[in-house]
Write a structure and sequence with these properties.
By secondary structure, this protein is of the alpha/beta class. It has helices at residues 3-12, 14-27, 35-47, 109-130, 144-147, 149-155, 208-222, 262-283, 302-314, 322-332, 340-345, 351-360, 385-391, 411-416, 420-442, 444-458; strands at 51-54, 63-69, 73-78, 134-140, 164-171, 175-176, 183-192, 231-238, 250-259, 286-295, 394-400. The protein has a 7-stranded mixed beta sheet, sandwiched between helices. It has a 4-stranded antiparallel beta sheet with strand order 8-9-7-10. The two termini are 46 Å apart.
Length: 477
């Protein structure tokens, strides 16, 4: 199937796809509660002739849609979960919540899930028209934000039959992603002490809140003695109550520990555990902990990244109206970021990449394709795509759905999530991914090279899921 036919196929479905994306924006469901979003996508998959299976990998809102027969089997990953407390009026160029405290699509996953669906539909049409050997599987992967849904799915072998996997993410640049990510572990520490009157008989109290604070202080000192790329974040989820004249008998804190490699984050986790136990000893309280989730670092696959980069250039970039550019500029004006930040972010590409960025940026939209260069450097965040990348060759793109310099996890992302700019970027991403999947189905040598590269980078031990058996996915409370 030519690029022209892929574009034609997806454009013919554009109204349906953009409406589905807008519907998921409205649902704004958080990790492992995405029932409406799941049903929206599954209904389209079924109508398009895919065999749908829900609840895969022992994850209630995970699902797959399969079309075709035989090898190769290529997966396309789709996300659809929202973020807490990011509710925002669509199209407003100022912060304006219409339902305070409620979730919003602050990472563009309403677009993510449907852009991947567009790609799966185009590949399905190719298989249907040609009768070629090959299978495309759309994976609905819930709970990426704080839940590591793909890691739970990978632990149960959901991705084991794949020859490769392709995905994307909405953003403010068009590029074949060349970054790795930070592996992470999320754990909740609970302290139980003894309540007492804080003035009348404080000597009889044992403060759980003191233990939480001592844990936090201990971790602050640990920061000097960990690798610079590591990160530790925390949130006190239960401070024990609202009465300062009571020694707090119960307190909880949630920790997210990150590092560039699985082994590094495990070592850091072990050190935090020692501090947590020490805080209990210092306060004569009892500490228990709950392992919430974890995810692996991304294993880059240069072979697949180059294939995606080729199709980023082959598929026509979206064109924008004067009104769209004016709106994008209004959003860009709300941010504190500077144009120079983009060149700094990708300075590892060398002076030629920095020069290219400086020459092409400056407008309200980064409507160009970033030069590809193999990096493997860990980005600041984490993604459970990493766990899929340990199982099979995996690569992803970013596509412009946002004004230049839009900050991550922000009201600006939510506000732009139903815009025509976002829709155009979503469909463009679908076209690029579809073209790449079809290339993989038609080029066994490229697929073999991607597999050989994957095997070398993963090593003989293969994938070891960082989530222990018995841990279940938890909706964010």
């Amino acid at each position: 199937m030519s690029i022209e036919k892929i574009v034609e196929c997806i454009n013919a479905k554009a109204d349906m796809l953009t409406q589905a994306s807008d519907n998921i924006w409205e649902y704004a469901e958080m990790a492992f509660r995405e029932h409406k979003s799941m049903n929206e996508i599954c209904a389209i998959l079924e109508a398009e002739g895919f065999k749908v299976e829900k609840g895969i990998g022992d994850v209630e809102t995970a699902f797959s849609g399969t079309y075709g027969t035989g090898k190769p089997v290529i997966g396309i990953l789709g996300e659809f979960d929202a973020l807490d407390n990011l509710n925002q009026v669509a199209g407003a160029t100022h912060k304006e919540s219409f339902k305070e405290g409620c979730p919003g699509h602050g990472c563009g996953h309403n677009l993510f899930g449907i852009g991947s669906l567009a790609a799966a539909i185009a590949v399905k049409e190719y298989l249907k028209e040609t009768g070629a050997s090959g299978t495309v599987v759309y994976f609905g992967t819930p709970g990426e934000e704080g839940g590591s849904g793909k890691a739970f799915m990978a632990r149960e072998g959901v991705f084991d039959g794949l020859d490769a996997a392709i995905t994307w993410h909405p953003g403010s640049v068009n590029m074949a992603s060349n970054n790795s990510s930070l592996a992470n572990i999320q754990v909740k520490f609970k302290y139980d002490g003894i309540s007492a009157h804080a003035a009348g008989d404080p000597q009889n109290g044992r403060s759980a809140l003191d233990a939480v604070e001592l844990l936090n202080i201990g971790v602050q000192f640990l920061r000097e003695h960990m690798i610079p790329e590591a990160r530790i974040h925390y949130a006190i989820t239960d401070a024990g109550g609202f009465s300062p004249n009571v020694v707090q008998p119960h307190a909880e804190v949630l920790y997210l520990i990150r590092a560039p490699k699985n082994a590094q984050v495990k070592k850091l986790y072990d050190r935090v555990m020692k501090i947590a136990n020490g805080a209990a000893l210092m306060t004569e309280t009892t500490m228990t902990y709950e392992f919430i989730k974890a995810c692996s670092n991304v294993v880059n696959n240069v072979t697949l990244e180059r294939a995606l980069d080729k199709n980023l250039h082959a598929v026509p970039l979206p064109e924008y109206t004067a009104e769209e550019l004016e709106t994008a500029q209004a959003y860009k004006d709300t941010t504190a970021a500077d144009d120079a930040d983009l060149a700094e972010k990708y300075s590892a590409g060398g002076p030629e990449v920095v020069k290219f960025i400086k020459e092409h940026q400056g407008g309200p939209l980064n409507n160009f394709i970033m030069p590809y260069f193999p990096s493997g450097k860990a980005m600041g965040g984490s993604t459970d795509v990493g766990d899929v990348s340990w199982v099979c060759p995996t690569a992803q793109i970013n596509a412009v759905t946002l004004a230049a310099n839009t900050p991550g996890h922000s009201w600006q992302i939510v506000a732009q999530g139903k815009s025509s700019i976002a829709h155009k970027g979503m469909l463009y991403a679908g076209e690029v991914m579809a073209a790449t999947v079809i290339d993989l189905m038609n080029d066994p040598e490229m697929l073999a090279a991607a597999k050989a590269e994957h095997a070398e980078k993963v090593g003989p031990e293969g994938y070891i899921c960082p989530i222990p058996k018995g841990i279940k996915p938890q909706p964010i409370k």
